[in-house]
Amino acid sequence: MPSCNLLLINGPNLNLLGTREPHVYGSTTLADVEAAARQQAASLSVSLATFQSNHEGAIVDRIQQARDEGVDAIVINPGGFTHTSVAIRDALLGVGVPYVELHVSNVHAREEWRRHSYFTDKAVAMVCGMGVYGYTAAIEFAARHMKTAAREKL
């Protein structure tokens, strides 16, 4: 039985991974990322659900649903909503589920407007600029961090 429940959320345009600006985001597809994430989660004895939407409200709804499902941590790549979505931020804070913010590219080395995030100041951790390997790092951290947190509660 998994000792930790993780939710991986991908925001707008991440369904285009592998074809969208491969010089920035690489050639690995979201399906490939999700398959690798599920395999990694199984090897860490954690459960993993995945979700992608181009719609802000759908992401808010999925975050709210996570609390009712007993999700222990969220790994979120908010995509373009990073710089605009107070609604997603409020949902994350409202459910009280710790989260790791994730970006494929190094947002700090890109356009000035990409450097502002509505999520970083409340995230347990932030991973960026590691390409799709960032998913591996974020899931590893979330799984191990949440397992440690659960043991400390005992």
UniProtKB/TrEMBL annotation:
Pathway: Aromatic compound metabolism; 3,4-dihydroxybenzoate biosynthesis; 3,4-dihydroxybenzoate from 3-dehydroquinate: step 1/2. Keywords: Lyase, Quinate metabolism. CDD domains: DHQase_II. Is involved in the catabolism of quinate. Allows the utilization of quinate as carbon source via the beta-ketoadipate pathway. It holds the Pfam family DHquinase_II. NCBIfam families: aroQ (TIGR01088), PRK05395.1-1 (NF003804), PRK05395.1-2 (NF003805), PRK05395.1-3 (NF003806), PRK05395.1-4 (NF003807). Substrate binds at N77, H83, D90, V104, S105, R114. The keyword Lyase applies. Belongs to the type-II 3-dehydroquinase family. The keyword Lyase applies. Its EC number is 4.2.1.10. Homododecamer. Adopts a ring-like structure, composed of an arrangement of two hexameric rings stacked on top of one another. The record marks R20 as: Transition state stabilizer. This is Catabolic 3-dehydroquinase. The active site is at Y25, H103. It comes from the Eukaryota. It catalyses: 3-dehydroquinate = 3-dehydroshikimate + H2O.
